[in-house]
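Fold description:
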Amino acid sequence: MELIDTHTHIYLEQFDHDRAEVVDRAEKAQVSHLLMPNIDSHTVVSMMAAARQFPGKCLPMMGLHPTSVKTTYKTELANIEKWLEKGEFVAVGETGIDLYWDKTYAAEQKESLEHHIHWAKKYSLPLILHSRNSLDELFDVLIPRQDPALTGVFHCFPGNAAQAGKVTDMGFMLGIGGVVTYKNSLMAEVVEAVDLKHLILETDAPFLSPVPYRGKRNESAYLSYIAERIAEIKGVDVEEVAEVTTANARRMFGLVVGSHGRS
């Protein structure tokens, strides 16, 4: 059985004292790849260091997280574009809109998202979307710019089954993480309604740990708990969940079977 963690921040300081051990535990838990979304210019160095330390296993993305869109966002975007030109990345992101923490820069977040959409098309890379309290606003930006070649992932999908259908109709995947294991989680209803061919697995480590580790630091080795919960909801074997979601992730991020890195 092979699993792929399509969204982990293993380069953050929460892992500074045991990063190698965390990667080793992930490998022992049959997690073949750890895909790393960037946050902003302050995280690029540590992210790229992790990519060099674990080549072909920890794979970087490049983008500006919406909560990092502040007064300096234009400088941030220019820096990201320079990195993307180097061609070392498996996706553009993490980008999107976040209206949960702060609405001050909502307009600038939309502008940043537009830049990321352009880059995803330009470099033929998937787009990784953050949409906390902002699904409708994100749809308003994305749908007019939709292109058959534009694909990506709604990370930590926060919506209902109807909104999930809107996402899959656009050719995007739903990123399913630890929230699906929480009691009375609406995500269970979404997973039940959506075909496995539209789902990929993620941890968002060190955040959003699945049960039985909720409240503790998350890590990629816990991906199996997410796969097991999805299997329970769908009434299938966990091996089927692993096989389908891993194939989805490999196709989305251009990961060739039997090799490391992007094709």
Observations:
- The first strand starts at residue 3 and ends at 5.
